[in-house]
Amino acid sequence: GVQDDGNGNSRSQPHQGRDVNGQRVPREPCKQTQAITSYTNEGTQVTVEIHPKDTTPQLFKKLSFGKGPWRLPSLRDQDNKGKPPLSLSETTTTTTCFFPAYPWDRSSLKSMPVDLQQFEKLDAYALKVNITNSVEELVKALLKQARTDLEKVRAIWMWICHHIEYDIVGYHNKSQLSTRPMDVLQKGKSICEGYAELFEQMCSIAGIQCMKLSGHCKGYGYKIGQTFTGDSDHAWNAVYLDGRWHLLDSTWGSGTVDDSFTKFTFRYNEFYFLTHPALFINNHFPDNSNWQLLKPTLTLKDFENNMLYKSKFYMLGLLASHPETSIISTVNGKASVSVDCRSATLFTFMLKGKDEHGLMTLRKHGMKLDIYPQKTGSHKLQIFAKPIKSSEDLYECVLEYVVECKSVDKAMRFPKDLNQPVGPSWFTERQGFLRPSHPDPIIHTNDGRCSVTFSLGKDISVLASLYCDGSSLAEDRGRSHVMQVRRGNQLELKIHLPHAGNFVLKIFTRKKSDPGNYSYVFNYLITCLNTEVKWPPFPQSYSKWVDEYEILEPVSGLLPANRNVHFKLKMHGIAKVLVQAEDTHPLTQNRDYWEGTCNTSGCREVFVMVHENANHSFYSQVLKYEVESQ
């Protein structure tokens, strides 16, 4: 019953609320005369009709859902309000005719309004209480700072989640295990049954109606698509607050175990405190379906087919994923997944433990992922996310799929240098890249040439480079196949591919006002199927070549031998421009352009040099061309 991480689920629109007879009812809890139902762990249901004050309640229905004697939960006169202990003649543990809608209506993660900021002092107090010799004394100490029933439940919840660890040794060796509340308190460890029994007794002492529930869960060891048979494998609780029942799981609220099930780590999880029943059902299936607290209830088959959402899926503000089945099949070698979210969120993925064979794009309210497995069979797909505001570089797993691949699309084999996500997005806009000419992640070119433009802030300096599998492009050569042109706030990246294939165009930036290392921002995938493509690199530029300069001729960095080559360069603020080959050839200024001709006979390299200041005698190299072998 322990979790490796909690899971939930979501669908689209809610159904209307209905009462126990299937009739439509308003959302607010029932008033005046109230039908109230109790369930024991043995599965007996007792419905009691509650009349206004000074009238006698009447036991009007008793239905048996299982064997075993009917019993009352242990309740004590400990709630600070002087209420007498409850008895059958007054009421029992109760549910009202309120039933949350399923699927989840996206309104709240909780089943009642909870302001976590108002709990901060109470939470801090509860964590400091250190009593392990008596359950009664522990509850008495915790209740000193708790006024309402909700605060009492909160104090008990926080204490258990931070002081009781999962008993891995006891789980493997039942002879060393006890789930009795006093033993759990003294040892400071137990399994889910012990967590739930301690929680139930502490609530009982505090005068809070509480039930220990049992059933199946999608926790540690759960495999997508598995069926649930036999005895239940997990225990949790329900508490009665503000006129209706609420669900919580202090075992999963306390922490997680590692993959080998040898180590427990305290890692508090707020999600499992008063979880909305339409979310709780996705990884907790009670033996008695009434304790789903849903109308209509889900079948075990529904539960088995539900998506495996992690609790982090909802805690990060994610809303839904598509498809809503956990096992998906490829069509012509491709499977697609998308996630909807409320706010800006970063995503990544793993297919069989590697972030490859996929193309993920960020959207304003989510992401889209196309998967192209390169082997047939079953593949585990994990989706990870983190909020954009997170200072940590830690992505949390939020959901999992199994991808069944029937055929492979070899054409969609991506370069290993491709980073996820691919293409421009709201994230690249925040980095200053506005109005991209190519909003899609893949650029197709037939002749091996393409051009990408953006609007860009003036303080941003850009570095772009081309990458390809194999040794055809070293780092410096990759940069030489991309040429930048800046015209005011417009940036153009001209790309000439050295051959056919799949390439990655990576874009890095830094602030001009704060020179340092360039930081990676995003990348494109560029594809070319034309095997006749063979473009030479652009000329090599040096540090004196300014962003606003532009090469009009010759664009190719490889010049023909023994030829007159015409040069036309757009440069400003320069006193003189020379082209150095076997001989020196000055260029003539015509407004912002410098033009002239150079002969390539007898040389292997040609340099463009500038004389920045007429009062200085030295020239600086700004461009270098190679000359073809003779």
TrEMBL record:
The record's region (Disordered) falls at 1-38
* Any one Gene Ontology cellular component term annotated for this protein: cytoplasm
Give me any GO biological process, just one: neuromuscular junction development
- Pinpoint the Transglutaminase-like domain residues: 184-252
The organism sits in which domain of life?
A: Eukaryota
A Pfam family for this UniProt protein? Answer: Transglut_core
* Sequence ranges of Polar residues compositional bias: 1-15
Q: From the Swiss-Prot or TrEMBL record, give the protein name.
A: KY peptidase
* Record organism: Oreotrochilus melanogaster
The opening ranks of the lineage are: Eukaryota, Metazoa, Chordata, Craniata, Vertebrata
What would be the name of the gene that encodes this protein?
Ky
